[in-house]
Write a structure and sequence with these properties.
- By secondary structure, this protein is an alpha/beta fold.
- It is built from six helices and nine strands; from the N terminus they run ααββαβαβαββαβββ.
- The chain has a domain of 154 residues: Rossmann fold, CATH 3.40.50.
- The longest helix has 20 residues.
């Protein structure tokens, strides 16, 4: 076990250097370095934890590749005083990274099994500054709005209006936009301007599972 931990640590350091070479900010790298990605994977996939690849986590969902996690977190520009909404808890890895950077994270997952297993992993790692909910992520978390930052780890055909409405002053949302039948989706950064309007910025092409919900993809289509 100790040999595995040492090996994982070395692999993690190499991965962080690769991400640093891509221009990812130090605060993002520091947060990712503090979260053992292998802890969020089933035993059969732990040996691949620090490869730059998406891996299965159950319920036909995946843990995003580290480069995408780094890029999205970098673009979200999280500060220590921020209140963050995460749509798509998944295995809890991205949640843990955000918790290392923000004051509090509110995370929504549609699969109860994933939400519960993520909760157990986060508790084992002594991550506590989050609140979880099982529900329709495309509708956000109205009772806790507004949010300084919103991270969406599933693709929607268009930015859900409910989520844009829950962006606070100077708020930022990072989300993949596109249809599942397309080869790739567009990773977008939406931001609230000082006059209240919404601006947008294209970050690159990505591939994500669908955001299933009333303002995302219908369950039948997803």
């Amino acid at each position: 076990m100790f040999a595995d931990r040492a090996s994982f640590q070395l692999q993690s350091e190499r991965l962080m250097q690769t991400l640093s070479d891509l221009g990812i900010r130090k605060d993002v790298l520091d947060a990712m370095a503090k979260v053992p990605r292998d802890a969020f994977l089933a035993p059969a996939f732990k040996h691949e934890a620090y490869k730059d690849a998406a891996l299965p986590i159950g319920e036909s969902q995946t843990i995003s590749q580290p480069k995408v996690v780094a890029l999205m977190t970098h673009a979200l520009d999280v500060a220590k005083n921020h209140k963050v909404l995460e749509i798509g808890t998944g295995c809890g890895y991205q949640t843990a990274v955000l918790c290392k950077m923000a004051r509090r994270v509110f995370t929504v997952e549609r699969f109860e099994s994933l939400s519960e297993s993520a909760d157990k992993r986060l508790q084992q790692l002594a991550v506590s500054n989050y609140v979880r909910q099982v529900g329709d992520g495309s509708l956000g978390w109205v009772g806790q709005a507004p949010f300084d930052r919103i991270m969406v780890t599933a693709a929607s055909p268009q930015p859900p209006q409910a989520l844009l409405d829950q962006l606070g002053e100077d708020g930022v949302m990072v989300i993949p936009i596109g249809k599942q039948e397309d080869e790739f989706q567009r990773l977008m950064r939406y931001y609230r301007r000082t006059d209240g309007s919404i601006g947008e910025y294209y970050l690159g092409d990505v591939r994500f599972v669908p955001l299933v919900g009333k303002q995302g993809v219908t369950a039948e289509a997803g």
